[in-house]
Design a protein that fits this description.
single chain; 159 residues; alpha/beta; three-stranded antiparallel sheet; 8 helices; 7 strands; 36% helix
Length: 159
Amino acid sequence: MPNIDDYYLNLNLSYVNISIKESLLNTAIKSNFKISSSSNGLPILVKDSTYINNSENPEQECIEMFDKPINSDTIIILGLELGYGLKYAINNFDKHQIILVENDLELIKYVFKNVNLIEYLSKPNLKLITNISEFKELPKNNNIIANEYYKNKYKNIII
């Protein structure tokens, strides 16, 4: 009988490339992750006592992340968090290529185990990158979207 804890994980993994899938299956979750509630009641991700999403209103944070002109056909989202940025991009920019960059395999695996993202992961205009060197090789793009946590995390590579 399949492990119920892996139900969402297996669903989500069916939409990522084989090398990412294998990496995630071989990743042990050692960090202390939990899903908590924001001030307005929405779920937010916490890693080792650090909020990955805005603790007040993660949806408003997401809207503000995208509150700038999108001036090419590619949008790069830094960070998966609980998927608010991914969902917003897929729902509002379906004609754009969307590249999601997240190099924390533990975080991806934890989110994939707890959140059903197949509606978004299955979109042909989405590419998931888990390797920062791959991100650095992308053409320069002004459409880099990130929340405060990821702006700080990736501040040395955002141009």
